[in-house]
């Protein structure tokens, strides 16, 4: 068994900082703290406002973090994205291009099978279930109580929103948003950059960049 990280530190001793200070950042901070670690600080474009929300940690702007030694910090992406995963992806890629690493966060109440492959910076939130054989790409969120069933392949920079269900062997391309409470049946392929609306029932493949809405889902 791996040795637990010291409070406020990743396993290699790097201080943990969350990028962003909005609603998703609150959830990320809570998930990190639930693992027994603490957060050293957050970044925000308006540090003064963010300090009111997070009075117990350091608040800095992105440029201040980028000026620090990359090896001394571990990032967690606190930008969520409702229907648009692009801002979260841009932030991830900005810091990666400067040599920073991203923490993979798994809430203790989530169920993740031992053979699941999680990319860098993946976030598995409270109550989520990821079943055997699944692969989750870098910087993807599997949000509260979402289900990714066996042998699903989810690309990088996706958001599987709260309560969404991917049945077995679903393939999801990069940058896809699966809305809250949506269901995707087995063997369906969702193309890169597509959006599945909240509550949709997807029973056929969705082309790249398309919007699938309704029950059963139709391409809008």
Please bin the fraction of helical residues: 10-25%
Largest sheet: 8 strands, mixed
Radius of gyration: 17 Å
Q: Gap between N and C termini, in Å?
A: 49 Å
Top-tier CATH class of the largest domain: Mainly Beta
The tally of strands reads 24
Strand order of the largest sheet: 6-9-12-15-18-21-23-24
Strand composition percent: 25-35%
Global geometry: globular
Order of helices and strands: EHEHEHEHEEEEEEEEEEEEEEEEEEEE
Number of domains: 2
CATH topology of the largest domain: UDP N-Acetylglucosamine Acyltransferase, domain 1
Average pLDDT level: 92
List the total number of helices: 4
Description of the molecule:
The protein is of the alpha/beta class. The chain folds into two domains: 15-103, 3-Layer(aba) Sandwich (Rossmann fold), CATH 3.40.50.20; 104-206, UDP N-Acetylglucosamine Acyltransferase, domain 1. It contains four helices and 24 strands. Helix 1 (23-34) links the parallel strand 1 (15-19) and strand 2 (41-43). The termini are far apart. Residues 1-9 have low confidence and may be disordered.
Short structural description:
The chain is of the alpha/beta class and 220 residues long.
């Amino acid at each position: 068994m791996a040795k637990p990280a010291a409070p406020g530190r990743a396993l290699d001793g790097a201080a943990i900082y969350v990028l962003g200070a909005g609603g998703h950042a609150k959830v990320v901070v809570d998930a990190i703290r639930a693992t027994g670690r603490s957060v050293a600080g957050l970044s925000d474009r308006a540090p003064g406002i963010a300090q009111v929300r997070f009075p117990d940690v350091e608040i800095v702007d992105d440029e201040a973090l980028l000026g620090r030694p990359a090896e001394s910090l571990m990032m967690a992406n606190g930008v969520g994205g409702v229907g648009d995963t692009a801002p979260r992806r841009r932030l991830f890629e900005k810091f990666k291009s400067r040599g920073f690493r991203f923490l993979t966060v798994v809430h203790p109440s989530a169920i993740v099978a031992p053979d699941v492959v999680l990319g860098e910076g993946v976030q598995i939130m409270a109550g989520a279930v990821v079943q055997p054989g699944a692969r989750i790409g870098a910087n993807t969120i599997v949000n509260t109580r979402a289900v990714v069933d066996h042998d699903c392949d989810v690309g990088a920079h996706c958001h599987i929103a709260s309560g969404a269900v991917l049945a077995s062997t679903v393939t999801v391309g990069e940058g896809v948003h699966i809305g809250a409470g949506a269901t995707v049946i087995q063997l369906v392929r969702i193309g890169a950059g597509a959006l599945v609306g909240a509550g949709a029932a997807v029973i056929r493949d969705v082309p790249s960049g398309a919007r699938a809405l309704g029950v059963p889902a139709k391409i809008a």
